[in-house]
Structure formats: structure tokens, C-alpha cells
Specification:
This protein has 160 residues and is an alpha/beta fold. Helix content is 22%, strand content 34%. It is built from 4 helices and 10 strands. Strand 3, helix 2 (47-53) and strand 4 form a beta-alpha-beta unit. The structure holds NADP nicotinamide-adenine-dinucleotide phosphate (NAP).
Length: 160
């Protein structure tokens, strides 16, 4: 496998990531960081997230994961990580940003080498949570503190 998988996610203090199909907060600066990160990049996205927020990935190249036979003229769709990796190897894609939602973060955790994790000053209602990722060991290679969120750049320890 040549391709590197990098997760990009915004988490509340209790790993909240979604409420009623949307983010539980509105932090334009954090959203701008997300848009800048994925611009012109390949992004791996769950079918539900893509159907809910396809507009968020405008300017990126979406690879959708679905097992239900979903198709969309604006995206390539695969039904397993093996297919995604084969596609990336064939096209010599160096990196793919994993942009959720929860099912796709959970599925890709073992494949990640990096994680751009925005921790938002939010504790409150949610119906979707980021999976337990501290099962792996992460090194903080950069940290940017903003007024109501902090961006951590994690690298997974190679032996994990
Ligand atoms: N805070 C953040 O950074 C952030 C980021 C992204 C999303 N979100 C939030 O997360 C929520 C959506 O997340 P979600 O977990 O409900 O849905 P999701 O992960 O976006 O999509 C789930 C779908 O992915 C497909 N899938 C799951 N496992 C698969 C596998 N092993 N192989 C192939 N396809 C697979 C299935 O599609 P089929 O049913 O078609 O088979 C499944 O229904 C929303 O509330 C959204 O706002 C938050």
C-alpha cells in the first residue's frame, strides 16, 4: 500500500461529531481549515455524509464508501477498503483524507497514519461520536490554539 490515509475531523470534548445530520456547532474558522485542507485532494467519505453534505467536498475528489449499490456521477464509489487501496495504488495517489462520518472513521482507524483533529470547546447533545482512537498511540507533531477550538496534528506511532 503506497497511499497514506489522514483523518480530518472536528470533535467535541466528549468526541461528539454530529447532531441531526449536521455538526453540533458553527465555527466558521474551523470549517475554513477543513475546506483548505481538502481542496484539490482525494477525500474518503461515507455514503450518508456524502448525501447529507456533498457540497462540503466541492473542490475535492470524493471517493464514497457504500455497500448498498449507491452511485453518483460526481464521485467514485467503492464497497470496501481493499477496493479503495487498489484504486489508490493503480492511480498512484499519495494521500487520501478521511472525512467521516462515524462509520467511516471507525472503519479506517487501523489504516490511518495521521489525524488532523480539531478539538472544539463543545460539550452537549450529539447523536454521532468519533470512535475510540486512543487505543493507538499518537505523537502530537503540531498544535494550533484558536479561540474556541484547538487543532492537533497527530502522527500514529509506526508500530501501531
Ligand atoms: N465533526 C466532524 O468532523 C464530522 C465529519 C463527518 C461527518 N460528521 C457527522 O457524522 C454524521 C454521519 O456519520 P454516519 O456514521 O451516520 O454515516 P457515514 O459514516 O457518513 O456513512 C455511513 C455509510 O457508509 C457506508 N459504509 C459503512 N461501513 C462501510 C463498509 N465497511 N464498507 C463500505 N461502505 C460502508 C454505508 O453506506 P450504505 O448504507 O450506502 O451501504 C453506511 O450507511 C453526520 O451527523 C455528520 O454531520 C461529522
Amino acid at each position: 500500500m503506497i497511499v497514506k490515509f489522514i483523518a480530518v475531523a472536528a470533535l467535541g470534548k466528549n468526541k461528539e461529531i454530529g447532531l441531526n445530520g449536521a455538526l453540533p456547532w458553527n465555527i466558521p474558522e474551523e470549517y475554513d481549515h477543513f475546506k483548505r485542507t481538502i481542496k484539490d485532494q482525494y477525500v474518503l467519505i461515507g455514503r450518508k455524509n456524502y448525501e447529507l453534505h456533498g457540497e462540503d467536498v466541492e473542490g475535492a475528489m470524493p471517493i464514497v464508501l457504500s455497500k448498498s449499490g449507491y452511485t453518483n456521477p460526481n464521485a467514485v464509489v467503492f464497497s470496501s477498503m481493499d477496493q479503495v487501496i487498489e484504486y489508490a495504488d493503480d492511480l498512484e495517489i499519495p494521500k487520501i483524507y478521511v472525512i467521516g462520518g462515524a462509520e467511516i472513521y471507525n472503519l479506517t482507524l487501523p489504516y490511518l497514519s495521521e489525524f488532523l483533529c480539531s478539538v472544539v470547546d463543545y460539550e452537549g447533545p450529539a447523536d454521532t461520536y468519533f470512535p475510540e482512537y486512543l487505543f493507538y498511540e499518537w505523537e502530537v507533531v503540531n498544535q494550533e490554539i484558536h479561540s474556541n477550538w484547538t487543532l492537533y496534528h497527530f502522527k500514529k506511532r509506526p508500530d501501531f
